[in-house]
Amino acid sequence: MGNLTSSYVQVNPSYVLPEVILQYNQVSGAFDTLAGGDPMARLSDGDLYAYIKKFDIRTKAAAGQTAMNQLPSVSIAASMISTPTYLVRTRAEYDHHDTAAFGKWGASVVEAQRLGMRQGIFQQMRQALLYGFNPANGEGLLNTHGATAVTLPADSNGHTTVQTYDNGEMALFLLSQISALKTRTMQMGMPSRIVICGPQRVLSGWEYQGIVQVTSYQRAGGGTAAIGAVVSAQAAEAGDSVEWVFDDTLIGKGAGGRDAIILTVPEVKKPEGARINTNEFAKMAPGLDAVNIMLCDMAAPREIPTPLPGGAIDVVSELRITSGWSVRPEGISILSMAY
Q1: Is-cis flag, bond preceding 286, omega within 30?
Q2: Cβ atoms of residues 319 and 301 within 8 Å
């Protein structure tokens, strides 16, 4: 925990730009895989577990030309699923000397430490969302029990890596995975928000370099559209929107050390019919339409400042969270691809 503001030599007359060159890191798009695009601030202070109730229904009815005396009945089984919560904490300490030294460098030590603590907590949240704190318990989206895991098969030329794969066949592979995902979640015929999260080195090739051949994509732009454009355009034809988001920590996290790509529908729409609705039980309220969720106890980390002997101040920043939780595992696919 250091505030290193060394002395410096400056030639005068001179001009010093007021702006500071800051370290820019990748902004993770992993949180876009959550329902609503953000963790849900629903936990209370000190909650150690989060639970969700489930109803599983089996329906039967008898049919005949005459009334029957013995009739089948509806069976409803209630159950619960749960996940533990974790308290993420970090701290900052500084005194009036640090404040003065930072001031000579044209910056505020208070704001610098505050933003640094928030970044540390948010990075830990990204870790919990994707990989969980206890992966063996199914925590984290990549460890979801029941998720569909697919390894990129060889193309017609025998290539199995992202860099050598046939562009047209890669586009068709991704579209087939979207089709399978929507089929599993009963979302066919309804517009969906589809999120594809993966490393930059994989998705950048799909968006910029992987031009699909005219013979593979005969629509407007054929021969000039990249893999990502083809996938987005075809999905738009069905009313779907595809979001391409990035997280480089997914490098090497797939099966056999391959790169992992998360394909998911973060929230589902309730399938509804007309007056005759074979999905009538889904009208029961309240229902949860989320596929992937993450809970927290506050919208932003709490900051607790405490005076220290000698005129210093200690600031603790904390937030209670759950790991990433795919409550409808049929709504997530984990694609493993060798780069």
Answers
A1: yes
A2: yes
User: Cα separation of 308 and 115, whole Å?
Assistant: 21
Q: What's the CA gap between 250 and 336, in Å, rounded?
A: 10
The answer to whether 182 and 139 have CB atoms below 8 angstroms apart is no
* Upper half-sphere CA count for residue 34 (Cβ side, 13 Å): 24
**Which pLDDT value is given to residue 215?**
57
**What is the reported pTM?**
0.90
Output the CA angle 290-30-323, nearest 5 degrees: 65
Backbone angles phi, psi at 189, to 5 degrees: 85, 0
Run of H or E residues at 201: helix 200-204
Residue 175 structure tokens: 């579209």
User: For 60-84, what is each residue's pLDDT tens digit?
Assistant: 999 989 988 889 999 999 999 999 9
How many CB atoms are closer than 10 A to CB 25? 9
**For residue 226, what pLDDT is reported?**
85
Answer whether 5's CB lies under 8 Å from 105's CB: yes
Beta strands in 21-167 (DSSP E): 40-41, 49-58, 75-94, 148-151
What angle is formed at CA 30 by the lines to CA 28 and CA 34, rounded to 5 degrees? 140
